[in-house]
Structure prediction request, 884 residues.
Amino acid sequence: MDIPIKYNPKSVEKKRYHYWIKGNYFSSYPDDRIPYTIIMPPPNITGTLHIGHMLNNTIQDVLIRYARMKGYNTCWVPGVDHASIATEAKVVHNLKKRGLSKFFLGREKFLYHVIEWSKKHKNIIFDQIRKLGCSCDWNRTQFTMNSKLSQSVTKVFIDLYDKGYIYRDYHVVNWDTEAQTTLSDEEVSYKEHIGKLYYLKYKIKGEEDYITIATTRPETIFGDTAICFHPDDSRFHHLKGKYAEIPIINRYIPIIQDSYVDPNFGTGCLKITPAHDIYDKNIADKHRLDVINIFNKNGTLNERGLHYQGMDRFKVRKKIIEELNNLKVVKNIENFNHKVGFSERTLSVVEQRLSLQWFLKMKKISIPAIEAVKNGDIQFYPKKFRKTYFKWMNQIRDWNISRQLWWGHRIPVFFYGKKLNDFVVAENLEKALEKAKFKSKNPYLNRHEMWQETDVLDTWFSSWLLPLSVFNGIYHPDNHEICYYYPTEEIVTGSDILFFWVARMIISGFLFKNYKPFKRVYFTGIVRDHKNNKISKSLNNSPDPIDLMNKYGADAIRMGLMLNSSAGKDFHFEEKICSQGRNFSNKIWNVFRLIKSWKIIKNQEIPDSSLLAIKWFKNRFYYVLNIFEKNFMEYKLDKSLMILYKLVWYDFSSYYLEIIKPVSNKYIPEIVYLNTVKYLENILKLLHPYMPFISEEIWSFLRKRDRKEALIVSSWPEKKFYDYDILEAFSKAREIISQIRNIRNQNHISYKKSLVLFSIRKREKEEKKYDSIILKLASLSKIIPVSKKPENIPFFSFFIDKDLFFLSLDDKICYSKHIVKIEKKIQYFYNLLSMIRKNLYNSKYVSSVPEILLMKERKKENDILNKINRFKEYLEYLKNIKKK
Prediction:
């Protein structure tokens, strides 16, 4: 089969992925090998993947492919997450465009639309992951709403409730008015916002005086139940025990004291609105204040808002200030910079709202998870995230696990009465009925008098169980697979879900298995756009990965991402990194084609330079392998790839192949060719985890007749001894070659021109053996060892490691031609100088241009003069040599 001149990633990638699938190379079953398991952070089914997902999945695939070649039984479990809030919001939005609403459709029909959406996007996501080359075990594909995982979620909820960890109560929660559900603290992002601070006067009961409070939210006065100042603030001691009248509604509220109040904020007096601020609620609980909820679920005011009932909260803010101005109770309004919370799912402004929710007690169950990271049982890469982890874990609050949605794991709670505790927890209605009859002491209770909780569980309540549930370790805790694959090796994830997911998985591992769920956590950096925004689905600021892969190839994207990303460090994505990857792909392909173009000749004398090159590159490879693996094991994946990049581009291509390359024909000695193929195979093995497609394709062409084993399951090169003295000596030879090449390039000496090198070296015998390589790669006619500076030495001289070298043109004909070239060069620079001076000696020009531009022109003049002088010196030297 002919080898294509150009590498075509599109056809190769499709062919190679099919080849891997057909060979069943991704599948894993328990056997006698050591397992190596990774669970993919399941992407949300809210659309296509973005560049951040590409980076995350590439890192996982690099780790899996490396482990597979190391002989481990690799199991990479792919999956997608149902993403309750985000997915429901997407489907609601799509239905709205068709003139439909979820409430009009009802729960059952609405969920049909969501399931159709999930099927479509699940396939899109998996196709993208396959196109990237990810070697997942597709037989183990997971979806957080599938039956096995759903059963696990239900069982865990029931067990935790029975043990007293889950409870139901009223709390002030973060409320998403668009999705109309509660949010966790971690699902709220805070942004700086320049708003207004309103100073409002509240009349003191029985007096003509007023007390002034400062607030950013005048619309919440309908929910005020107290005014508070700091106990040490002497300005307000005279108000202790008195009451104030709320404007508009004319209701009296007590004036109280609490150390929570900051005396330096506003006037030092704070209005307390317990239903809509968590800190106000704490004060209300302490002082036994009323709690008045003034908002509907959609962010409009309820009947407590009087004539503003049904109006949006932000419209009310404008209207109420007009009314308060008319009542002459607005003392002052000033600009105020403060942070406003936004829902990460719908981007709407979050409201704090008193709500009846389900909670999981976290303090006690978090202790083993804190200890596991503290004692190093679970490692974080980079370690800096330990500090963030401990800070959050030590201040952990009860987890609000309920969401007011229809899409998700429905909470297994069944009600049978009007009282707060008239419910039972069970996996289905039949079992719930039996429990309810016993609890209510009503044997005549029937199923029609019972109804299930309408809320669903927080999405993370399913994904925190994944290391266990994907192997059915919740329902069957001692099954063969969970015993074999658990704990998993790594979790590769962004630091932005350290609390959402990583911390909770560690908690669940110790809670349900009494053991860590994974050994290491690799935190990727956040991929950002050119405006420094995080690349995300919600911002829609990612280039389409499919378009990029079609344009550059998957290997190119993988390499570009891996070269530019370090553990835990954010980086800005630019398309040019894909070009870098594509250029490297082309380089590897051209190297391969060059080698395959040579014809083998047996029993031919092998040049000294080729024998030296074989010996050097063998040692160089094992030296690089050692450094490569050291970096790899420390998760410095970008550094290990850069080391490999340099090995291919410089060591193998620019030096080794140039040394062994046939000079006048395509015939190469058999032993040289076989060693070259062997070295290329070893390079392909190191390259495979990063660039699987091109490496497998080239592997299939090498030794095509006797190749039985696919590269993906070939064995990783074993570390071997390398002779550092050989590497050091060759390194010196490279420096000599590099210096000669620089002299040629700087002085425009063609590589066809023959040069002579005179050398004064200390260790002549040891280093002379590399002269054959220097002669070939530096295009020299000869190397002459001398003990002192020769007569009529050339103009060019250089030092390397205290050894002195002199470079000379080889014959007088060359000198004559080179003299003409140098004279032309000098004339060229004189012409350039004349043009620059024409401006610099023009007073009108000098007075009209900016000083910085003038300085640049004068610098150009000086640089050109220096070049002319250097070339004149060189010209004089050449003429003198020619005369002699």
The longest helix spans residues 851-883. The domain at 188-348 is CATH 3.90.740.10 (Isoleucyl-tRNA Synthetase; domain 2). The radius of gyration is 37 Å. The chain has a mean pLDDT of 90.
